[in-house]
Structures are given as structure tokens and as C-alpha cells.
Amino acid sequence: MKCIVGLGNPGKKYENTRHNVGFMVVDELARRNGWQINKSKFKGTFVMEQFGGEKVILLKPQTYMNLSGESIRALIDFYNIEIDDIVVIYDDLDLPPGKIRLRQKGGHGGHNGVRNTIDHLGTKDFKRIRVGIGRPSTNMPVIDYVLGTFPKSDQENMQTSISKSADACESWLKGKPYLEVMNDYNNS
Fold first, then answer.
1. Do the annotations mark residue 14 as ligand-binding?
2. Is position 64 annotated in a ligand binding site?
3. pLDDT one-digit tens code per residue, 57-98
4. Catalytic site includes residue 19
């Protein structure tokens, strides 16, 4: 069984914000496959379906970003999912809109949702897709920036990165080794 987790914040208030790009990728995967993310448990909403003959879970923690690890830990413990079978998707200030970076491990880079995930998983060694949102060009506080929506000028690039992230997930779900998926998508 594999699990793809998109990090974000629940509720209409945060729906289209930069910080919710992880949710947007999971929603795109569900849309493509005709799945409904309609189960609520483990402090999250999720769907469990078949993809390429294997069970896959798409999870959107509903704990708010800073406590995302609580939901992930509860779900993977219940379903006995190995850390190696998880991909966590989240926003990254250090990448420009439209860029994604796949990694097999790493630190939190100041991202509180990833920090909490590392704390709850007890390891930094989990697959991740960082989706670029860029940095504020003004003196805007980072919290206001990540909780803001994408300007019209970034929307096309963001749709590209959401689509590429979903493509990368599907490639991994079809059985391609993650290192090869990284090579494919980190160079695009």
C-alpha cells in the first residue's frame, strides 16, 4: 500500500492559498482518477483506491499545517504503511512558482508542517515533492504571503507545477523507482 499526503490547512478560508498547494496536488490526483476524498478519520480526509493493482491512499491532514504529522502517523500506523511507501507534498518558498523538486529525504527547511511530520515519523527519510511558491518580493511577512492566494501572473506556472507533481506521483504509483522519477522531474 502506498500513501500520498498533501499538506495544507482545512476550510474555505485557506482553500486557494499558497500554503495549500499540497492539497491541490492531491485533489488533482483524485480528479484525474475519478476518486472522491470523502472519508474522515485519523484527523484527516482521505480516499483509498486501487491504482495499477496496488492500494493507494490520498490523505489531506485536517489538523492545520503545523500538526500535519499527527494525521500522517495515525493513518500509517492503522494501515501499517512503511515510511518508504509515503510521499509528502508541500509548498516551498525557495523554489519559484512552476518549479518542483523531488527528494528521498531531507530536513524541514523551516516548514512547520514538514517539521511536525519529521517529529511524528521519527525520521527525515521520507519521499517528498516540494512545490515552488516563491518568496514575497516586498517586506510582506512570510505568514501573510503563504496564506495569500496566487496572483494571476503565477496561476499558469502553479497549474503546471501541480500537474507535474501529480504526473510524478502517478509515475511512482505505476512502479517506477523513486530515484528515476526524481531524475525525470527534477530536470524538467
1. yes
2. yes
3. 999 999 999 999 999 999 999 999 999 999 999 999 999 998
4. yes
